[in-house]
Fold each of these.
Amino acid sequence: MVFNTRLAGAEDYDLCQSQVDEYQNNGHILLRNVIPESEVAELRTAVLRTHEALKSEEEDFQKAFRITQNLWEINDTVRAHVLSKRYAGIAAKLLGCRDVRIYHDLTFFKEGLGKGKATPWHQDGHYWPLDTEGCITLWVPLIDCPVDMGPMSFVSGSHLNKDAEHLPISNESDEYIRNLVENENLTVAPAQHMNAGDATFHSCWTYHAAASNTTERTRIAFAIAYYDADAKVPLQPPTNERRAANLARWFPGAVPGGPAATEKNPAVLFPHD
């Protein structure tokens, strides 16, 4: 599947081995200037407009954040960023795989003045319907995001287990993971100030959360979820309703045990695959 589109983030990102090691040890990393400063404003405008166009499909997660998904399918600017080899190259290097495919993209809007409540601790893996450990999400604020706007915190090393896999994002998952952190003396990497265009990358198995947004502005963030391009669809049926729904929605026509590669999941670095 090949798209004729302009290039976004055309230059490779200078990622060093120590950063790869940091990600593989911790399951998360913050990288500066992932989206070039000159491109942030255009992407922000495109994301806002496309989110509005998808308003009827917007989901509100417990007043913590509002999302729309797969903006890349209907907006050329968003598509150029989602299919950027700069960002996908980072993801592939962090995962240690030859290429990545697109799972889906998402907006993450958190209202200001405390209306955007805290995001509970959770593992994204509860929702991922794939047979691979190679899953990673780029999360980028499209405006400067101070700590009191609600950037993410992570539990370092938590990607090495699936203790909270059975729980959707909820007060229950929050309590469960908080207890794990306390009882097992796990290390929490606190949220850091992020400039527009900085990005975190985290494994779908890394525990993460975000505080409420107490600033006056809405937190405008965008995410791209990638996975190892050679991943398969599990032979066994999905183990929860959200995985089943995501398998049907994001992998139409994929068969158990077959490649997780449909028209909705283009490979990015080697797009003819």
Note: The longest strand covers residues 100-110.
Amino acid sequence: MGSFKGHALPGSFFLVVGIWWTGKYSLWRASRRNKNMGSTRLASRTSQRRLEVIESSVVLFFSFVGMLAEQFAADGPRLRLYDSADQHWEQLMNWQHATMYLFFGLAAAVSLVVHTTEAAPLALDRLMLAVAFFNEGFLFFYHLHGRSMLDVHVHQLLLFSVFGGALLAFLEVFHRGNVVLELLRCTLTLLQGSWFWQIGFVLYPPRGPEWDLNDHNNMMFVTMCFSWHLAIAMLVVSALYCTVSCVVRSRLRRTPPMEMGLLKPRDGDPESEDEIL
């Protein structure tokens, strides 16, 4: 990850996941609010599980790709942890980044088990997601020794979004379906993704002059820039939530009465996962 591409890859991953989560939770919220208009099917347990399985499979795949990229890139360790000949560790930065991807892959694997079998409690997927975010922050917290002032600062700002996401995911273990917690997690995930890109531009600018990594004014600017990223993430989540809600309500209003009757749940139709808890 010690390059622009190395920061753009996880940044893109978190941006895509944040947008997906926002759309998914907005859809479920809008569906639950418009049950009397025939939208129950959209928020049914079967539909939710199908989406969760697809999402977990995609996250598991990209986590695997991320681990391979860290190990087998041009300067990767290629699964060598220690060089016994020269007696030194091999590319520990890449190993740490691969470990970050590993935990998100584990969270996705647990989510697959939770939503395809009855072998594990439903809340376990949120708990593992919280562990994955916490592990990411834990690794980055001890990732900064001996670096320049600005390098340390941009990564410390990243920790706010990472540990915030871990806390919110942990709270969802006990308050599943709370749209405020879900949308806050989406916001911090988008913030994390955009900030990874910003770190890439600051530390490894693809073009233009390099940043002075020991200039205090640059530290002041990136701190302000972090606030701008947070504001943009909040606006994106708000816009997506409002758009999805309006689209769902508009489409349901245009649905003919006969089709509305077909959309209403039968007796014994499974409820949403959030309502089961």
Note: Confidence is low (pLDDT under 50) at residues 265-271.
Amino acid sequence: MAGRPAAWGTALPSVGLGAVCLSSAARTLQINRGAAAGFLLQALAALVGVVGFFWTPLGLTLAADSQAGTWVSTVIGLPLLAFGFHWLNGDHSTANILLGGALLLATGLEYFSEEGRAMVAQSVTIVASITILILSIFTMNFYGILGSLVLSVAGLLSGVKVETLLMLRKEAVLSCLLAAGNLAFQWALQTQHLDLD
């Protein structure tokens, strides 16, 4: 395992993403449980990918489960974050619409083709980041704006058909961007909670 630097280069950012999301879930649990659940879903998906990396030399694989888990964490986890932002601002109807739509999409996993899943995941990422961006602009929440922009860049890069970005594997770059975006969202939720108190 030590002789595979490309594999380690993908696994270590996933560990960082999982750690950031777990920390964010713990820190936002008292602010909004929906947002904490969104962070937790993203952490679990990242950590399942890391476990799959360590199990591969043993002849075990989690590729199918990891792919479905990543899709579900994107389709449900990101709208849960948007739900938290909207709920804290008192926009309960938009929060419920986002979450209800995400749950409907998540139940249709088997009905989508591979291209359909990619399109749905990218659409959910865009909708979640745009709604958080609009809300953050109106509330002047710098961390929310930053997190939305970083999440948007990650969503755009996920659709790019290249293997390496900036001399790094695409998965590693996406994990680093998602970790930075989730950290900014955690700070944004804390700032928004303090502003409302």
Note: The chain has seven helices and two strands.
